[in-house]
Amino acid sequence: MVTFVDAVVDRVEARFRPDGVLANVESRRLAVIAALAGFAATPLLTVPFVIAHGVAGETTMLVANLLLLVIVVGGLGVFVWTGSTRVAGWANLGALVGLAVAGHVVLGGLLWSGGYLLWLMLACILATVITNRRDTLVLTALCALAVVALAPLEGSLQASRQQPLLGYSVFLLVGFLLTALCFLIPYQLVSQAWIRTEQSRNRMLMLNILPETIADRLKTEPGMIADRYDGCTIVFADLVGFTAHSKGKDPALLVGELNTIFTRFDALAEQYGAEKIKTIGDGYMAATGLPNPDPAHIAHACDLALAMVEAMPALNAELGTDFALRVGVNTGSAVAGVVGTSKFSYDVWGDTVNLASRLESNGAPGVVAVSASVTRALDERHTVEALGTRDLKGQGPTELYRLTHTRSVPA
After folding, report:
1. What CATH number should be reported for the domain whose range is 224-405?
2. Mean pLDDT of 192-204
3. Which of 154, 329, 359, 403 suits 123 as a labelling partner, its CA being 20 to 30 A distant?
4. CA 373, CA 399: separation in Å to the nearest integer?
């Protein structure tokens, strides 16, 4: 039996075309199982009602329930064959709505029918799982119209029929409640799975914008997030030749080239424990030592800068380009925080950032230009060459150094 069920699930999963809440369930197999359980539950749960109608001598309702069985079993077959929830969903929902109206009219209104009209409510709830929003609204509107149309007839429906056995009406009501419970449990499970999926997607989007620690703080700390870091290192990199290269080129090609290069830089930033701050056109900015403290932030930033320069020949060979990379590295204190309420971003400010930018713009292609504060803190793996003193905008006369060393992966 287990093998047969697995085979059915595998067949449906290969062709599955989910709709409604099922379309948002992250696990495709879970969505298939939930749909199969829902579509198979209807005919199984109808059997007790068929028996009750037969015992009570309610031939019309017996036939109506048997017809419902045929419709929903046919819908289940369509679902297994095509993997589409739409036909099977409307087969189930339409049968439930028709049965609810028929039961309400034939059995003498809401009281004598044991609340048969409540099946309309269950149909609307199920619709959110297996159909899209538009179809759900249409079904809900039809159910509401049915209730409004039948409400004035309540008195005449009760009067048109003899009072049925009390146990029969109670059985129908209890049966509805138990059936609703059977449907609502998987509905709740699917809804929770959908919520977890949405939360996971939202978190992934947040982590694509913000550092993980900052994203976590935003969830628990309302208001502004701003921190001062006394030990951090800023890396600025710029693609030399990209502006001239971009003239007259296909936009998709240019974006694809930048994406390839910056994706490689992202991987290097992660490798060296750096936090990517932002890209500005063809420029790339990263930092070490923030938002998570790093005792070796200067060494890691230098390793990252050199690795980025060393990655360019392979990237140029892959893309058929001839870009060079100009990099500036400076260390010191900075302020970092989240700005904006929509399209917000995590950014870094301060003189440390400004000097790193000036070092980059006054450096040479293929060179990692570092400040005196960086050279004073370098370990034995790194060496520098003096590039002289430059008068940098906003900084005045500043000593520049070229960073060199044999790169090694940090522990």
Report:
1. 3.30.70.1230
2. 68
3. 154
4. 10
Q: Does position 143 have pLDDT exceeding 80, yes or no?
A: yes
CB 138 within 8 A of CB 129: no
What residues are paired with 398 via a beta bridge?
390
Q: pTM for this one?
A: 0.57
Give yes or no for a contact between 364 and 384, defined as CB atoms under 8 angstroms apart.
Answer: no
Question: Average pLDDT of the chain?
Answer: 84
Residues 6 or more apart whose Cβ sits within 8 Å of residue 3 = none
| pLDDT of 325 higher than 70 | yes
Q: What angle do CA 179, 128, 200 make, to 5 degrees?
A: 110
Contacts 24+ apart (CB under 8 A), 183-187: 183/38, 183/41, 183/122, 183/125, 183/126, 184/125, 186/34, 186/37, 186/38, 186/41, 187/38, 187/125, 187/126, 187/129
Task: Pick the more confident residue, 199 or 36.
Answer: 36
| 257 touches 319 (CB < 8 A) | yes
Instruction: Report in angstroms the alpha-carbon separations of 403 from 239, 304, 353, 385, 394.
Output: 18, 12, 18, 7, 23
The CA-based angle 199-205-211, given to 5 degrees, is 110
Q: Tokens in use for 317?
A: 């060979």
Q: What is the pLDDT of residue 410?
A: 47
Which segments of the chain belong to CATH 3.30.70.1230?
224-405
Between 350 and 203, the more confident residue is 350
Residue 3 has pLDDT above 80, yes or no: no
| Higher pLDDT among residues 303 and 111, named by residue | 303
**Mean pLDDT, rounded, for 238-255:** 89
- Nearest residue to 99 via CA among 70, 77, 74: 70
Phi, psi of 291 (to 5 degrees): -75, -10
* DSSP letter assigned to residue 84: B
As given in the structure block, the two tokens for residue 151 are: 């409400």
Q: Which of 234, 273, 236, 274 is nearest to 374 (CA)?
A: 234
DSSP run (H or E) holding 154: helix 154-159
